[in-house]
């Protein structure tokens, strides 16, 4: 096969967190900081294009504790368990964003 005639592969962009899986609610991109403060914006979005992307799975998991711990604890006040999905984000050769499930992380209310 000649150079340039191969099939284009998906471009891996990184990893995203789905904070509310039943609503497809993603951790929002930190650059969406509307108040201008120096703190990281820990918002939630249902638009995949606005999701925060981490370069590695490890960084995405660290973000759960660092930025979203209070959010998860708040959810546990009204639920006995809370799930967060870690997904790989890819761009298809046609340019659309696609996700692939990597891992579901479950947090349970303390007894």
Major sheet details: 5 strands, antiparallel
What fraction of residues sit in β-strands? Answer: 25-35%
**Given the C-alpha coordinates, what overall shape results?**
elongated
Oligomeric form of this entry?
A: single chain
Q: Enumerate the strands of the largest sheet in spatial order, edge to edge or round the barrel.
A: 3-2-1-4-5
The domain count comes to 1
The amount of helix comes to 10-25%
Report on the structure:
- The structure is a single chain.
- This protein has a five-stranded antiparallel sheet.
- The termini are far apart.
- With 111 residues, it is an alpha+beta fold.
- The protein has one domain (11-108).
- The protein is built from one helix and five strands.
Mind sketching the topology for me?
Layout: E1 11-20, E2 25-27, E3 44-45, H1 57-76, E4 81-91, E5 97-108
Antiparallel strand pairs: 1-2, 1-4, 2-3, 4-5
Concise synopsis of the structure shown:
This protein has one helix at 57-76; strands spanning 11-20, 25-27, 44-45, 81-91, 97-108. The chain is of the alpha+beta class. It is elongated and about 60 Å long.
Offer a few descriptive terms.
single chain, 111 residues, alpha+beta, 5-stranded antiparallel beta sheet, 5 strands
